[in-house]
C-alpha cells in the first residue's frame, strides 16, 4: 500500500510541476490554486506537496535543471564522437529548454540546489568542448570559457525561433541544432 501511495505522490508532484510551468509561463503571478486546477488537483493536494510558492519554485528549478542535465548525458558527451555528441547534446538541450522555457529562463528559479546542478552542466559542457578542441573541431588556442558562453548565447537565440506556445517538432530541433553547431564551429564568414 505504501508503494502505491509513493507512486501516486510522485505522479501528483510531476503533474503540479508540469502545470506550474504552463501556468507561470502565461502569468508569473498565478496562484497555487490556479496551478492545482491546471494539474487537475485540489489546492489541498498542491499544498500537501509544496508548503508554499517558494517551495514549488525551488522544486520547479531543480526539476527543470535536472532534466537539462539528463538531456546532456543522454547525448553521450564522453563516448560518442565529439561532433556527434555535440549535435545530440545541442538537440537534447533545445528540446528540454523548449519544454521548460519559463523555468529555465526565470531568475526566480535560481536556488542553491539548482545552482549546483547548473555548475555540473557547465562542467559537462567544458568537458565536451575540451574533447572538441582535442579532436580538432575547435582551434587549438580556442578560449573554451568564451566558446561556452558563445554556445549558450547561440542556444538562447535558437530558442527565439520556436513559437512560445508550440512544442517544436524533431525536424525543427535538428535543423536548429545543426545551425547552432555550424555557427559555433565555422562562424558566419565565407569558407575557403
The coarse overall form would be elongated
Count of spatially separate domains: 2
In the predicted model, the low-confidence regions spanning at least 5 consecutive residues are none
What percent strand?
Answer: under 5%
Please tell me how large the radius of gyration is: 19 Å
N-to-C SSE series?
HHHHHHHHH
Question: Biggest sheet: strands, sense, closure?
Answer: none
Helix content: over 70%
Number of helices: 9
CATH topology of the largest domain: Tetracycline Repressor, domain 2
Q: Which architecture of the largest domain per CATH?
A: Orthogonal Bundle
What would the average pLDDT be, to the nearest integer? 90
Gap between N and C termini, in Å?
A: 68 Å
| CATH class bucket of the largest domain | Mainly Alpha
Give the number of DSSP strands: 0
CATH fourth-tier homologous superfamily of the largest domain: Tetracycline Repressor, domain 2
Q: Which structural category do the helix and sheet elements fall into?
A: mainly alpha
Description:
The model has no long low-confidence stretch (mean pLDDT 90). The termini are far apart. The protein has 192 residues and is mainly alpha-helical. The chain has nine helices and no strands. It folds into two domains: 50 residues; 128 residues, Tetracycline Repressor, domain 2. Helix content is 73%, strand content 0%. It is elongated. Helix 4 runs antiparallel to helix 5 and helix 5 crosses helix 9.
Give a topology summary.
Blueprint: H1 2-26, H2 32-39, H3 43-49, H4 53-74, H5 82-99, H6 101-104, H7 112-134, H8 144-159, H9 170-186
Amino acid at each position: 500500500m505504501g508503494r502505491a501511495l509513493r507512486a501516486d505522490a510522485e505522479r501528483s508532484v510531476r503533474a503540479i510541476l508540469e502545470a506550474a510551468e504552463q501556468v507561470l509561463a502565461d502569468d508569473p503571478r498565478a496562484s497555487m490554486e490556479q496551478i492545482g486546477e491546471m494539474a487537475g488537483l485540489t489546492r489541498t493536494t498542491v499544498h500537501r506537496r509544496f508548503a508554499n510558492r517558494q517551495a514549488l519554485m525551488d522544486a520547479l528549478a531543480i526539476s527543470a535543471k535536472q532534466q537539462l542535465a539528463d538531456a546532456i548525458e543522454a547525448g553521450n558527451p564522453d563516448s560518442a564522437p565529439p561532433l556527434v555528441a555535440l549535435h545530440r547534446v545541442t538537440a537534447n538541450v533545445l528540446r528540454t529548454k523548449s519544454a521548460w522555457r519559463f523555468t529555465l529562463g526565470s531568475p526566480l528559479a535560481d536556488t542553491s540546489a539548482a545552482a549546483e546542478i547548473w555548475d555540473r552542466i557547465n562542467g559537462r559542457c567544458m568537458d565536451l568542448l575540451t574533447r572538441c578542441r582535442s579532436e580538432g573541431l575547435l582551434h587549438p588556442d580556442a578560449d573554451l570559457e568564451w566558446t561556452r558562453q558563445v554556445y549558450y548565447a547561440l542556444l538562447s537565440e535558437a530558442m527565439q525561433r520556436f513559437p512560445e506556445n508550440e512544442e517544436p517538432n524533431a525536424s525543427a530541433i535538428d535543423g536548429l541544432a545543426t545551425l547552432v553547431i555550424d555557427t559555433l564551429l565555422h562562424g558566419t564568414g565565407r569558407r575557403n
